Amino acid sequence: MASIKASIPKGTRDFGPVEMIRRNHIYDTIKSVFKKFGYQEIQTPTMENLDTLTGKYGDEGDKLIFKILNSGDYMLKADGLKQKGEELSSKNLLPLISEKALRYDLTVPFARYVVMHQNEIAFPFKRFQIQPVWRADRPQKGRYREFYQCDADVVGSNSLLNEAEFICIYDEALSKLGLTDFTIKINNRKILTGIAELIGKPSQIVDLTVAIDKLDKIGLEGVEKELLSKGFTADDLQTLKPVILLAGTNEEKLAQLDTILKTSENSLKGISEIREVFDYLASFKLNKAKIELDLTLARGLNYYTGCIFEVKTNEVTMGSIGGGGRYDDLTGMFGLQNLTGAGISFGADRIYDVLEELNLFPHTTQESTKVLICVFGKEEEKYALPLLASLRAQHIHTELYPFGAKIKKQMQYANDKNIPYVIVIGSDEMQSGKLTFKNMQSGTQDKLSIDEIIEKLMIS
RNA sequence: GUAGGUAUAGCUCAGUUGGUUAGAGCAUCAGAUUGUGGUUCUGAGGGUCGUCGGUUCGAGCCCGAUUACUUACCCCA
Question: How is the subunit organization of this protein annotated in UniProt (predicted)?
Answer without folding.
Answer: Homodimer.
